[in-house]
Write a structure and sequence with these properties.
Layout (H helix, E strand, L loop, with lengths): L1 H37 L2 H32 L3 H29 L6 H31 L2 H9 L1 H21 L4 H33 L3 H4 L1
Length: 219
């Protein structure tokens, strides 16, 4: 009984580390979007500098997963939880990279183009964060339905991405002098769209934990 309790404690520590990393990502995404919308160089730099810590916690989670597999030899649900933590941390790290990329271009975009893109950028960032937050909640709770609900939000991001893409292309046609800034915003659009995709992957991992089935097996 004691060895099992010890293993469950270590498993809980792993899940808490994943959730803590997710919280760091949420903060980075919010700051990056705000840095873009306010053209705030200092806030953008905070996101860029913070990516080092995100990479560090990913490595810590990888080490925890390897140690659990090597020393505890988990099977069935326990093994799926560990594998999911490993894959989720990788998706979170990629999400953090996209937040950093967004912050990097935050201050090179002209003010008028920022005003065009601001509502959609904030919406995409907020929705991506909601997917991530609910996905991590569903991971801790083993809640497949919550994971599926969060996953469905990705459609909102995709629609907003297409809308913003068209708006920016039209701005480029109407005002060729804005092309350099507009191209930077197109990159921002793609960063946010991909960011949401990685958040959606978290939800897929929850479904795997709870059902033992991968997304491609269910399609």
């Amino acid at each position: 009984m004691i060895p099992r309790q010890h293993f469950e404690d270590r498993l809980e520590e792993l899940q808490l580390a994943v959730v803590r990393m997710g919280g760091m990502i949420e903060e980075a995404v919010s700051k990056a979007a705000e840095a873009f919308c306010s053209r705030n160089r200092e806030l953008a730099q905070e996101v860029i500098d913070g990516d080092i810590q995100i990479d560090k916690i990913e490595r810590e989670i990888e080490n925890q997963c390897a140690a659990l597999i090597a020393t505890e030899q988990p099977v069935a649900l326990d093994l799926r939880i560990i594998i999911a933590a490993l894959k989720i941390s990788n998706d979170l790290e990629r999400t953090g990279d996209y937040a950093k990329h967004l912050a990097t271009v935050a201050t090179v975009v002209s003010r008028d183009i920022v005003q065009i893109a601001r509502p959609e950028v904030l919406e995409m960032a907020e929705t991506a964060n909601a997917i991530l937050r609910e996905g991590l909640q569903s991971y801790v709770k083993r809640d497949v339905e919550l994971a599926r609900q969060a996953k469905a939000r990705d459609d909102v991001v995709d629609r907003t991405y297409l809308l913003l893409f068209r708006e920016i292309v039209e701005a480029m046609k109407q005002r060729p002098e804005t092309i350099q800034s507009a191209v930077a915003v197109l990159f921002v659009c793609k960063y946010l769209e991909r960011l949401a995709d990685h958040a959606t992957n978290v939800c897929d991992e929850v479904i795997f934990v709870c059902t033992g089935a991968r997304k491609e097996w269910l399609d």
